[in-house]
Amino acid sequence: MNQTLSPSFPRYGSFREARRIAAILRKETVGGILLVIAAVIAIVWANTPLADGYFALRDLEVGYEPWHLRLSLGAWAADGLLAIFFFLVGLELKREFVAGDLRRFSTAIVPIAAACGGVAVPALIYAAIVWQQPELRHGWAIPTATDIAFAVAVLAIIGSHLPSALRIFLLTLAVVDDLIAISIIAIFYTDRIEILPLVGAFAVIAVYGIVAQRFRSFFGDRPFAAWLILLPIGVVAWALMHASGIHATIAGVLLGFTIPVLHRRVDRAAGVDGPGLAEEFEHRFRPLSAGFAVPVFAFFAAGVSLGGWDGIGAALLSPVTLAIVAGLVLGKPLGIVTTTWLVTKLGRIRLDPALRWIDMVGVGLLAGIGFTVSLLVAELSFESGSPAHDHAKAAILSASIIAAVLAAIVLGIRNHQYGRIRARDRVDADADGIPDVYQQQERPDGWFKPQPGERQKPS
After folding, report:
1. How many other CB atoms sit within 10 Å of the CB of residue 458?
2. CA separation for the pair 128, 316 (Å, rounded)
3. Which of 120, 186, 224, 414 registers the highest number of CB atoms within 10 A of its CB?
4. What's the CATH fold of domain 8-189+247-439?
5. What pLDDT, in 10s, does the model give residues 324-382?
6. Nearest Cα to Cα of residue 143 among 371, 394, 407, 390
7. Going along 246-398, which residue ranges are E strands?
8. Which three-class secondary structure state does DSSP give residue 266?
C-alpha cells in the first residue's frame, strides 16, 4: 500500500525566492573575495618593516569630539561601516520572518535549531578550554559567528554546484546566526548604558520606521528621497545608539527591521507593481556593504603583528587560539549537524534522498568560517594590543582558513553528485518556465506529494 512521504529537508521554497537568494550570493561572493584580499593585505603589512604605517593609519583619529564621535579609523570601520552590514542583516531577517523560511514553524524549526546548536557548541568548547584562565572567558562568543560572504567566496573558488536548497539553508542559518550574534553583543558586551541617548535612539528609530512604512504614500516613486530623508534620520539613530553605550551596529539591525518588505503598488492607476523599499535598499546597499564596508573593516581589524617565528609559536600554543580554532572548526559543524539530525529525527523529517549527511558536514564547515563578526567580538572581548587580542585575531583567520579548506575538500568530493542534483532541479516538464522541483504541492497536514518520477516510500 502506498504511503505519503514525510516532509523533506532542506526545503526548496519558491522559484522566485531561489533566484533572489542566488543573486544575493553572487554579490556576496565578490564581497567575500574582496574581504579575503583586504585581510591578507592587512596581515602582510602589519608584519613587514612598514608595520608602523599600518598601525598609525588604523589608529588615526577623526571626528567631532563634542559629540563623542572622535574615533580612530579602525573604530569608525567597526562601529560605522559595519552598521551598513548589519542594516542588511536586519533587512534579511525581516524578509525571512515575513516571506521566507522563518515565517512558518515547519520550515523555521530546522535552520533555527541548527543555528542555535552552531552557537552553543562552539561557545561550550571555548569555555571548556580556557576555563582555568578567567581573563580569557570573556571571549566565549568569538567562535559562534558565521561569515556568509567568506563562505560563498569559498564556494565560488572551488566551483561547487551546491544545490539550491542547501544554499537557501546555509543563508537562512547564517541569518539566524547573525541574529543570535547581535543579541549576544547587545546583552553581554555592553559595559554601560546611558538611558537618555538610548531612549532617544529608540524614538528616532520609531520615527524612521513610520516614515519607511509610509514612504510610498509620502514620496511616491522617488528613490532619491530615501537618501535625503531616511539616511539622515538613520545617522542620528546610529549616533544616539553609539552614545548610549550599546554597540552602534545594533542601530543598523533595528533600522533594517523597520523597512517594509512586501512589494508596494507604485502606480495604482496604471496597475503597475514596483519593488518595495526593502528591495530598493537591498539593491543599493548590498554592493556598498559587500564591496566596501566589510572589506575595509576586515582591513583594519585583521592586521596583527605576530612578532616573528617566536610570536607565531606563542600564538599557536595560546589557549585562546586553541579554543577559537576548536570552536569554529570542530564546534560549528558538530553543533549544526548534531542539532539538525536530532530535530529531523524527532520531527520525522527526511533528508532529501539525493543528499547525504556528509553534505550537512560540508555546510557545517562552511559555517565555521566566522571571520567578520568573530573579529568584531574579539575587538569587544579583549583590550587592543594585548596578547589575547592579537592571538584571537590570528586564531580567527587560521580557523577560517582551516574550515574553508576542509569544506572545500568535503564539498569538492561531492561536487559530481551536486551536478546531478542541479540537472534534476532544472527539469521543467510542463515548459512553464519554472522548474518542477519548485512546484511540488504541500498538503494541509504539512506532508508533500512526491515529485513526478519519484517512487513513494514508507514514512
Report:
1. 9
2. 18
3. 414
4. Na+/H+ antiporter like fold (1.20.1530)
5. 999 999 999 999 999 999 998 888 888 878 788 999 999 999 999 988 889 889 988 99
6. 371
7. 264-267, 272-274, 350-351
8. strand
Please tell me which residue, 336 or 219, carries the higher pLDDT value: 336
Distances 91 to 94, 251, 366 between C-alpha atoms, Å: 5, 12, 23
Residue 356, C-alpha cell as written in the block: 547525504
Residue 445: all three cell numbers together: 497536514
217 backbone dihedrals φ, ψ, rounded to 5°: -65, -40
What CA–CA distance (Å, rounded) separates 87 from 273? Answer: 25
CB contact set of 68 (below 8 Å; sequence gap of 6+): 242, 243
CA distance 115 to 111: 6
Quick one: CA torsion of 349, 355, 358, 362, rounded to 10 degrees?
-100
Q: Can you give the residue ranges of every domain in the chain?
A: 8-189+247-439
Name the percent of the chain lying above pLDDT 90.
Answer: 25
Neighbours of 423 (CB within 10 A): 10
Whether residue 76 contacts residue 134, with contact meaning beta carbons closer than 8 Å, is answered with: no
Under a CB-based contact definition with an 8 Å cutoff, are residues 398 and 321 in contact? yes
In the predicted structure, residue 17 carries a pLDDT above the cut 90: no
Instruction: Quote the cell numbers at residue 60.
Output: 588615526
Residue 454: per-residue pLDDT: 40
What global pTM score does this model have? Answer: 0.82
Copy the grid coordinates of residue 279: 528591495
Contacts 24+ apart (CB under 8 A), 286-292: 286/24, 286/27, 286/28, 286/88, 287/27, 288/84, 289/31, 289/84, 289/85, 289/87, 289/88, 290/27, 290/28, 290/30, 290/31, 290/32, 290/34, 290/149, 291/30, 291/31, 291/34, 292/81
Give residue 245's pLDDT. Answer: 86
CA distances from 327 to 108, 235, 400, 419 (A): 25, 36, 11, 31
Distance from C-alpha of 266 to C-alpha of 271, rounded to nearest angstrom: 8
Helices 15-46 and 51-58 sit at what angle, rounded to 10 degrees? 130
Distances (CA, A) of 293 to 248, 285, 384, 430, 455: 15, 10, 21, 44, 49
DSSP notation for 375-424 = HHHHHHHS-TTSHHHHHHHHHHHHHHHHHHHHHHHHHHHTHHHHHHHHHH
Tell me which H or E stretch contains 41: helix 15-46
